[in-house]
Each structure stands twice: as structure tokens, then as C-alpha cells.
User: Fold Nucleotide exchange factor SIL1 from Ceratitis capitata.
Amino acid sequence: MKFALSLGILLICEFAITSGKDENKTFHATNEWQEINDGQGVPAGLHIRINLQTGKKEAKLLSDEEDEAKDHHRNEGALTNVGGNVYGTNLKETTNNNLENSNTLSPESLKKIKENFKTYNELKESYKELQQKFQTDAELITGLIAEYKNLSREERDHSLSLQEKIKVQLRILEDLDYLVHQIDNALWFIDMGGLEQIILPLVVNETNINLRVKAVRVLGALTHNNPKAQIKAFEKNVGSHLAQILLSSTNTEELSSALYAFGSLLRKFPLALQRILSTSGTQALIAVLEKECELKVKAKSLTLISDVIVEKKLVLSNYADSDNPLAAAQYAELNLAEWLKSNAFCETVDVLVSSKLYELLDQPDLVEYFITGLESSIEICQSVWSKNPQLRHTLLTIKNRYMYVQDEFRLEIAQQIERLIKDLYNSINHEEL
Ligand SMILES: *[C@@H]1O[C@H](CO)[C@@H](O)[C@H](O)[C@H]1NC(C)=O
Ligand SMILES: *[C@@H]1O[C@H](CO)[C@@H](O)[C@H](O)[C@H]1NC(C)=O
Ligand SMILES: *[C@@H]1O[C@H](CO)[C@@H](O)[C@H](O)[C@H]1NC(C)=O
Assistant:
């Protein structure tokens, strides 16, 4: 479980790299991770990490709480990553190899990174105990779960305020989000009870929206391209919890992360598709198309529906040479057309696209999602859509607007719309087009 691929080091940097007086060269930190360019000076007191794959350094601001934190507890939290990812047995060597093999580094920045490693080595000295505690990602995850569980007790003991507790919870979730992208890590986290003890209670019952959103995102990371984790999450009824969020929320962040998690759970998992989309799942996805929320969230929802339709088509079209006839049979039983129709999918998309014309004109990237979604569901919805002059008017307006601009992206979309219009209306009203 070595962390060879990804981001390696996370620590609180107490030192500054100052090079040059040029104001231009100073790194301007924000709350997001940003790459530090060669020769940029970095102010003291930032989170710094090194992407072991690219060899590039990244930095972001400490949160207020971390900034003020001088007590051991929080420093320990920040350093567990160092212990886990960098200072396991032989890890110093691994790290150096990675750095030397990397051809993205100038000698100058390599030197700088090596200087930094002296500092890491000093940290290493002072946190020997932690290194022994966290040799692997698995131990790191176990530690994070234990730390999380401790929080409730500390809150009960009044050694931690609710605000402080939430901040630590968010930090733990962020670390987990990053760790569980790896398949083995995700399975370990689930085996250690992380899903039931941390994620589900937050997803289902938490009132703080930041915590809820973060937990849903971890859920998405856990199940993304991870069939075993998908099965375990499915068994815990995660699908209907996510459907519930999609039905009730109007928050962009929350809807986006729920759609991400929903897609991760369902993709390439015909049993879950069958169970979840035949019940509340389809309704939930279509509800997103109808509710008051940002158009980009609606585009995501339509894209997920469209992906499932395409996935089914692909599996069935490969049926003959499929090495998994059972899966093909399962896909054959997905009655997507019926589920979508009984939830007024075609009418909803029709109204949505027709009524959002002017918003869409300015956002060709969203238009592309919508047109692709329309294309994938044309067989299901043709009888509804082809009868509506308003939809055709909208499509033609966007097409005409995009057809005559010096912008290849818009031009491509115009051509895509042209094909769609042909498919939709050709058999009905050939001449009018
Ligand atoms: C940054 O550098 C460029 C070119 O070297 C210069 O034109 C610009 O004014 C500088 N900006 C600042 C904020 O110093
Ligand atoms: C949990 O709390 C106990 C007692 O306060 C402490 O000894 C232990 O180190 C804590 N564990 C973690 C992982 O924070
Ligand atoms: C949510 O809260 C209810 C009521 O307190 C509880 O019965 C249920 O087990 C909780 N759900 C989860 C997943 O923690």
C-alpha cells in the first residue's frame, strides 16, 4: 500500500523560502491547493505538500484554527500524513528516487526540495513515535477513524467546543477523501467500520451542511471505480440515502457531490441500477431537473441518466461476444424507458431546455451536456419531443446562433444540434427544416 502514485507530503511548514525581491515571484496562497512555480517565494506558515508524481510543490493557507493551533493534538493530526506517507521504512529512499527520476524538475528546484527535506528530516526526528505508529495507509486510516471517534467523547467532556469539533471532523474527512481514492484503502476503511460509524451518520443525520457535503464526497471517492466498495455501500442502503438528498436539497455543492456519489455507486453495477432506479432513484434524478438549482447541476443529472442509457446500449450491443452473459442479461432487464417515462422525464427535459434558452446561449459547455443527453434518450422521448414546436424552436435558435461564429467549439455543437434535429424531426416534418 505504498503511496507511490500520488501526493506525498502534507505538513505545516514553519520555514520560508524567499527568493528574489520581485513581488511577482511571491506565491499567493488561497484556501485551495496551488502549484508553486519554480523560483517562487513562499511565505511562512502554509500547508505545503509535494506531488510525488509530478515532483511539483503545492501550497495552501492554513485554516484559522490550524494557524492558531499550537497544541499537540492538532499538530499531531497534520503530521500523521508525514508519518504515514513519507517516513515509513525505506520511504526516504523512495522519495529521493522519485524526485531524481522526475524530469519535470529543474536542478534549482530540486536543490530547494532537497533543502526542504532537511526540514522534513528534522520533523522526522521529533516525531519518531508517530512514524512507528503509522507505517502504512491502512494504519493511517485506522488512526483517523480512532481520532474521529474520540471527538464525541472530547465534546462530552467539554474539552472541545462544537466549532472545534466540526473543524477537526472536516480535516479528517478531507484526509479520508484523499486516501480512499485508492481501492485497497477504501476497502480497509469500510472493513474498519468507517462507512457505518463515520460516513453514514453524517450523510443521513448531520445538520451541518459542510460536514454532510464532505461526507457525501468521501462516499463518492470510496465507491468510484471500486466494485467491491460499490457492493458494500449498496448493501448499506446508500442509494436511497443519496436519492433522498437529491430529492430534498437545493444546495449546489450538496447536489453536485450527491450526483457524483450516486454515479460512483451505480455505474457498471446492474443490480444497483435495477434496485435503485426502479424505485426512488429515477424520480430523484428527474427531480433535480425540475427544482430551483443551478443549470450545471441539472446538466450533471441529465448526464448521469444519459450515461446509464448508453451503458446499457453498449453492454447489450456487445452481447454476442460478451464474456459476461449474466451482466448482459441483468442490463437487458433494466427497464429504463419505462422508469423514465413514468416519471415524466421527456416532458421535464422538454420544458427545461425550452425555457432556459437564453441562459444556455451563453454557456456552450452546458449546451453540449444537454444536447448529448437529448441524443442518448432520443429513442425513449422522440414521440414527446417531436411534437413540441417550442423545443424545436429552441434547438434551431441555439444552432443558428452558434453556426456563424468563429469558435470551433460552438461550431461543433451547432453541427451536433443539426444532427439531433434531423433525427428528431426528419420522419415527421422534413420540409419545414
Ligand atoms: C510582473 O512582471 C511583469 C513582467 O515582468 C510586469 O509587467 C508586471 O508589472 C509585474 N507585476 C507585478 C505585480 O509586479
Ligand atoms: C483518544 O483519546 C484518548 C484519551 O483521551 C487518548 O489517549 C488517545 O490517544 C486518543 N486517540 C486518538 C487517536 O486521538
Ligand atoms: C439517524 O438518527 C436516527 C434517530 O436518532 C437513528 O435511529 C438512526 O440510526 C440514525 N442513522 C444513522 C445512519 O446513523
Q: What stands out?
A: The two ends are 60 Å apart (CA to CA). Strands lie at 11-12, 34-35, 46-50, 57-61.
